[in-house]
Amino acid sequence: MKNYNVILYLLLLVALPTVAQEPQSGTAVYSFTLEEAIDFALENNYKAINARRDVARAIKKKWETTAQGLPQIDGSVDYQNQLKQPVTLLPNSAFDNRQSTINTVEQYFDNVNRNGEQVQPLEGFTPVIFGTKQQMNLTATLSQLIFDGSYLVGLQAAKTFLEYTDNLEEKTQLEVRKSIINSYGAVLLANESVRILENNKETLETNLNETKKIFENGLTEEENVEQLQITFLQISNQLSNTKRLADIALQMFNLSLGVDVTSNTVLTDNLEQLALNDMDLAIAEQPFIPENTIDYKIGYNLTQQRGLELKLEKSRALPSISAFVNYGTAAFDNEFVFFDSDTRWFQSSILGAGIKIPIFSSLKRSAKTQQARIALDQANTQFIETQQNIQLNYNRAMSEYLYAIETYQTSKQNLALAERIENKNQIKYTEGLSTSFDLRQAQLQLYTSQQEALQSMLDIINAKATLETILNTPEK
């Protein structure tokens, strides 16, 4: 009995989904076959939803990288108000005549005095203010990248990253599918266990009541009653616990679906029928091609990324060429009159190009290139290890799948034998040919065989799901 409880707890933990969802208002009602549940979860499971968002974000990231090499237009508006304009001293000889010098000096001191300052002129020099107090500039610039090695590598990296994200989404879908199969089977196992335990409890209760009457008539020993009471109490306690675990299993299944955990969900498939459908020995005869597995594709994507990182570091030694053209207009005045219709604006435009040539970096670029080369070597080694792990995981999954089928066939035979043994002991006990202890042992053996048979069905379902996840060939 204790072993069965431990097994059921472990099954519930295995079936626990890797996603979470906020409860929704109200209690919904759902009904699913296994395939319907898988299809529903692939659309509504939170992890599947976020995987699709990752792909969408990767698509935008690819365009962001592409746009860096396309024309860029920037505009700017600059306004300046020189609260205190700078003064420049010019020698008096720079002016054409003395009168112009006097006028300039007088104009300067008039402006200074109006600002509340007292400044004495310097002998032989004339203080002059260049420009106006306020100015505004409007500029638009068109820039274009002509050649940059790192940009070309970036385009390749963006494409590889998108492929990597697509593969991650596919892996997520496989894991969601596997999680649904595991949790669906766990619910069916818990419900079937409740049904069997209720039948066992009913049979035990009948035996216990009959034995009590026989004891009350003095035709049997009290120990026979006590033996049956022990078994009855154990079954009753196990039934109560299994019902609670069945509720938890259903909540976990709802969580893996992506619905409220309190939803009333009905599972329409049968545990044994699912196990029989999954018993396919022909799958062991199919050739295993590691290159078709999702883990191989992801591992290859990682080596591609490291290779592009090395290519990027090498490209930094190449020159980059860019060009630009801008157009601007500016206005100047001592007052803020830039929105007046009669304000005069002065136009300007510049066309330019530039070449940036890396010459010497004190071996910095060389060091970064060597680091990228080492990282690529590490990625290649890890990829080899990944291929070995894929083969090992396939061999282990295939072995566990075949063993699950063999265990199911054996457990069915053991269950039939245990039922016959328990039935014979029931007859012997009723006729007084065996003790209640013998009957209890036969009953416990039957209960264990029942749970082993149920467990073997679930093992087939889960082992087939694991194998299909590795093969990346789920049933359509």
TrEMBL record:
<keyword id="KW-0813">Transport</keyword>
<dbReference type="Pfam" id="PF02321">
    <property type="entry name" value="OEP"/>
</dbReference>
<dbReference type="InterPro" id="IPR003423">
    <property type="entry name" value="OMP_efflux"/>
</dbReference>
<keyword id="KW-0812">Transmembrane</keyword>
<dbReference type="InterPro" id="IPR051906">
    <property type="entry name" value="TolC-like"/>
</dbReference>
<feature type="coiled-coil region">
    <location>
        <begin position="187"/>
        <end position="214"/>
    </location>
</feature>
<keyword id="KW-0472">Membrane</keyword>
<dbReference type="GO" id="GO:0015562">
    <property type="term" value="F:efflux transmembrane transporter activity"/>
</dbReference>
<protein>
    <submittedName>
        <fullName>Outer membrane protein TolC</fullName>
    </submittedName>
</protein>
<keyword id="KW-0998">Cell outer membrane</keyword>
<comment type="similarity">
    <text>Belongs to the outer membrane factor (OMF) (TC 1.B.17) family.</text>
</comment>
<keyword id="KW-0732">Signal</keyword>
<keyword id="KW-0175">Coiled coil</keyword>
<feature type="signal peptide">
    <location>
        <begin position="1"/>
        <end position="20"/>
    </location>
</feature>
<dbReference type="GO" id="GO:0015288">
    <property type="term" value="F:porin activity"/>
</dbReference>
<dbReference type="GO" id="GO:0009279">
    <property type="term" value="C:cell outer membrane"/>
</dbReference>
<keyword id="KW-1134">Transmembrane beta strand</keyword>
<dbReference type="GO" id="GO:1990281">
    <property type="term" value="C:efflux pump complex"/>
</dbReference>
